[in-house]
Amino acid sequence: MSRLDAMILRLRAQRTSIEFAVREIADAPGVIIEFGLGKGRSYDHLREHFPRRDIFVFDRFIDAYPDCVPPPGRLLLGEFQDTAALALTRFRGAAILVHADIGNGDRQSSHDLAARLCPLWTVMMRAEAVLLSDQPIAGENLSALELPSPARGVYFAYRRTSRAEAGAPSRTIAAAPLTAANR
Ligand SMILES: C[S@@+](CC[C@H](N)C(=O)[O-])C[C@H]1O[C@@H](n2cnc3c(N)ncnc32)[C@H](O)[C@@H]1O
Description:
This protein has six helices and seven strands. By secondary structure, it is α/β, with parallel strands linked by helices. It has one domain: Rossmann fold. A seven-stranded mixed β-sheet has the order 3-2-1-4-5-7-6, sandwiched between helices.
């Protein structure tokens, strides 16, 4: 698959996944946290679909369209591993949706990064919160959700298990196979 085809596939999947999350989280309280501002395209789509939610975004730098830069206090700059760890107390159990769009073009290192960050994401999530990711994830206290076409198998969705379940012996889901679009 060419890089162009992979990108088209990924972006269509991303849009479908965000719109899927609109229905999944409905009126449940909580903030939205995005990892990967990039050009700000998905941030723009999130704020269009969740106009009343607070949206916080992590990235190492600002490379977004000027009208897609989150307002002061909503953008956390630095390496994900550092900023997410520092923000853990602030965001513990606060997010109803985490959108992780972290692919860097190298399939394996993007996948490894998602595996390292996943424990931090789950701590930030409320019970029943949704995690959307461009990377397949094997995480504790997450159960896989089936995305509609054309997102299925390209983008990935998980639900944080409830607090009661989270206290029970953890359930680990298997990582889905990597495809050409997940890089
Ligand atoms: C695929 S792009 C995000 C695209 C964005 N969601 C959009 O719609 O325009 C991934 C972003 O993650 C950021 N990123 C990747 N690894 C990172 C890390 N370890 N720490 C901080 N930012 C990172 C990159 O700087 C890049 O902006």
